[in-house]
Design goal:
alpha/beta, Arginase, Chain A, 2 domains, 10-stranded mixed β-sheet, 4-stranded antiparallel β-sheet, globular
Length: 392
């Protein structure tokens, strides 16, 4: 479908600036939608950036207007991560008369871009936009994993979709195209034990910020498994990201978010990344917008280093290890990439129809530590978790 009519041009002052004579910047290379230049063609684009200035569904953060242009201001001034990166900025989605109108428009745009095998970067707006992006995958018939970098789970009640209950609305969709919801960085004192127990009952994958901060590399296989990565900046501590009406003194550091974004960019599975809940009027000297622009840059830099690294696609580039667990009467199959040294484990399915339905999810990214645990005759927790999901 023609998506040009969904957008208004970006602010000329943001995308047209004095170029740096000593280095090529993203602003020099991004094909941007402006009043002067018009709408750029998306043909041949690897990455498409869109702004969604929709905050009516953002609870307690509802005045977060013009967030996309605030981030663009800093993003366009960063050096290009790779000379071959072809990136298009379509501008800002025209807000609908209602939030439902905006959701529907975002779903149509995202579905069109994803169906054309483009990677989508969204600058928004509230967490509730994650629901619209999920619906885009539903529209193209793809079962997905959502990676939510967030201090909470967004599982509160309410009939109208908002930033605090969008996950509930995703769960209730029928037919359902969500395989797993992977929370990265929740803070226990913000969600409570009842909510963490509910996540366990739903067989989702929550990961507490403390356990990940101790070893940030543990986030790599988590985001490698995700199709959609949604970032609520309240997951970053207030000292590093003050531009949010629901801040916490604890959370990820800005550089840790950038590291996670690089991992997400390197994932061959990740096709959409959204930066959400930025409140420009609460920012201090552009500190948060600058940090988020750098997070986007690290995502792009990781994307430029993708290796088409998936064992089912090119098995000759992987070492296969079969570990027999004699105490359990079973075996676990691991794959190690000879290009990147990354690991996967294979999760079997007892039902042929489910095996075909969840084929994209039967190879689970893991760490070397999962392999060593299996070598010690223990079933890795990650294997057991996804065995129950696929066969449940």
């Amino acid at each position: 479908m023609d998506i040009n009519g969904f957008f208004e041009p970006s602010n000329e002052a943001v995308v047209n600036y004095q170029s740096n004579p000593f280095r090529q910047t993203l602003g020099d290379t991004i094909a941007a939608h402006t009043e002067e230049k018009g709408m750029p063609s998306i043909e041949g684009a690897r990455v498409v950036l869109i702004g969604v200035d929709e905050c009516r569904g953002s609870v307690d953060n509802g005045m977060a207007r013009q967030a996309p242009d605030h981030i663009r201001h800093y993003l366009y001034r960063l050096a290009i991560p790779d000379n071959d990166l072809r990136m298009v900025d379509l501008g800002n989605l025209v807000p609908g008369a209602t939030t439902a109108d905006t959701y529907a428009a975002l779903t149509e745009v995202a579905a069109t871009l994803l169906a054309n095998h483009m990677t989508l970067v969204v600058l928004g707006g509230g967490d509730d936009l994650t629901f619209s992006l999920y619906k885009a995958y539903e529209q193209i018939g793809r079962i997905i994993n959502i990676g939510s970098i967030d201090s909470t789970f967004n599982l509160e009640g309410g009939e109208a979709i908002n930033s605090r209950n969008y996950l509930q609305h995703i769960i209730l969709q029928q037919p359902n195209f969500l395989f797993d919801y992977i929370n990265i960085g929740y803070q226990t004192y913000l969600v409570g034990h009842d909510m963490t127990r509910l996540m366990d009952e739903l067989k989702f994958s929550p990961h507490r910020v403390g356990e990940l901060q101790a070893d940030i590399e543990r986030t790599e296989p988590l985001v490698r498994y995700c199709d959609l990565v949604s970032v609520d900046i309240s997951a970053v501590r207030q000292s590093d990201a003050p531009a949010n009406a629901n801040p916490s003194p604890h959370g990820f550091y800005g550089e840790q978010l950038c590291q996670i974004m690089r991992y997400a960019g390197m994932s061959d599975k990740t096709s959409c990344m959204a930066i959400l809940e930025h409140h420009p009027t609460l920012d201090r000297d552009g500190q948060t917008a600058n940090m988020l622009a750098q997070a986007v840059w690290f995502f792009l830099e990781g994307l430029c280093h993708r290796q088409n690294d998936f064992p089912y696609d090119a098995p000759q580039h992987y070492k296969r290890f079969i570990v027999e667990l004699s105490d359990h009467g079973m075996e676990v199959v691991f794959y190690k990439s000879m290009k990147t040294d990354r690991w996967w484990m294979e999760v079997p399915c007892d039902d042929a129809d489910r095996q075909q339905r969840y084929r994209r999810h039967a190879l689970v990214p893991c760490n070397y530590s999962d392999y060593t645990r299996a070598m010690e005759n223990e079933i890795p927790d990650l294997w057991w978790h996804y065995y129950n999901r696929i066969n449940g």
